[in-house]
Write a structure and sequence with these properties.
Helix content is about 40%, strand content about 15%. It has twelve helices and 13 strands. The longest helix has 16 residues, at about 75-90.
Length: about 350
């Protein structure tokens, strides 16, 4: 059509000499249209170069099959989770609509936009705001929190067993002869409190002495933690970090100071991002099972929506336990896996 503008259903209807409702039914496989009429209309639409408008179709549809996802860009693990959600949604005949939380575009604002965009359920990835606020923003839609804990009634949870992962790290280091351990916490990041508590319990056992220092969730936090410990002359035998980003920062700062990893200080992270496996880092970590987490999230949410090919989660994969929570919610807790590499060997 070029200069005449985009071809719409009205354009096809005028060329075919039919009503818009008849053309719409023909193009969308609706009833009440003979095969001869449908074929004629489809041929005209093809000739004119008609392309369906997905937004308009959503407005007409009673069900959209769209799952909204709120996430924070910048963290490699969150990107991996979103990628896993895309793959799982495709397997269950759903689509995703994303809302990125940034310094000038908050999580609540993003969730409210997803609701206005006619999403049928909301997944919040590694959320930093209160579940009560998230529930209010979601406007009564099914809400599932990914990789964080919550006991809020009606809010589903899929997360790793963070305590199991941290305990496995402590046991690995202690069995390797390292007893002086420091944990760099995640500040206000989701799951930080669970991981700190697990570290304190595990490091209180025989053969270990543990301390916790302030941290965060990025490389700068790892650099700052090493700087502070080195300035105080108090570097430990091993650093356990809230996540892989913090651990990478710690490794880089230790090397900048001429210290060897792991000979002088062993370093371990958490999450299992791809960067941790590079030979230049060779970082020991706790790998969260992204594909299991995202598949459970989409299957469970699809079952609650009762649309697409999703079905309620019944049989659970190995290493997953289910807990029933208040308000009919469910929590799925997935065992992570310790990956031992050169940074603690």
């Amino acid at each position: 059509m070029g200069s005449q503008g985009r071809v719409t259903i009205s354009t096809v209807a005028r060329r075919a000499g039919r009503s818009i409702s008849t053309v719409s039914a023909a193009l969308n496989g609706g009833p009440g249209v003979s095969e001869a009429t449908r074929g004629e209309i489809l041929a005209i639409a093809h000739e004119l170069g008609y392309v369906a408008d997905p937004a308009a179709r959503l407005l007409r549809a009673r069900r959209t099959g769209v799952i909204g996802v709120s996430y924070m860009p910048g963290q490699a693990f969150q990107v991996a989770l979103v990628d896993g959600l895309y793959a799982a949604a495709a397997r269950h005949s759903h689509t995703l609509s994303l809302a990125a939380a940034t310094p000038r575009h908050g999580e609540r604002q993003g969730v409210e936009e997803l609701v206005r965009g006619r999403c049928e359920g909301i997944v919040v990835v590694d959320s930093r705001i209160g579940v009560t606020e998230l529930t209010q923003a979601s406007g009564g839609l099914p809400l599932l929190a990914l990789c964080r804990e919550s006991r809020a009634p009606g809010v589903d949870i899929v997360r790793s067993d963070d305590a199991h992962g941290v305990t496995a790290l402590v046991d690995h280091l202690v069995s390797g002869g390292r007893s002086d351990l420091v944990y760099v916490d995640g500040a206000d990041a989701p799951s930080s409190d669970i991981r700190v508590a697990a570290f304190r319990r595990a490091a209180a056992g025989p053969g270990a002495a543990g301390r916790v220092v302030p941290g965060g969730d990025d490389e700068a936090a790892g650099v700052a933690a090493v700087e502070g410990l080195a300035r105080a002359g108090d570097l430990p035998q091993a650093l356990l970090c809230f996540n892989d980003h913090v651990a990478i920062g710690a490794v880089l700062e230790l090397r900048r100071r001429g210290l060897r990893v792991p000979e002088d200080v062993a370093v371990a992270g958490f999450d299992g991002i791809a960067l941790a496996g590079l030979s230049a880092l060779d970082l020991t970590t706790v790998r969260q099972e992204v594909d299991v987490i995202t598949e459970l999230a989409v299957r469970h949410l699809a079952g609650r929506l009762a649309c697409g090919t999703g079905a309620p989660v019944t049989g659970l994969p190995p290493g997953v336990r289910r807990e029933e929570r208040a308000g009919g919610a469910s929590a799925f807790i997935v065992l992570p896996r310790l990956v031992v590499r050169g940074s603690t060997a």
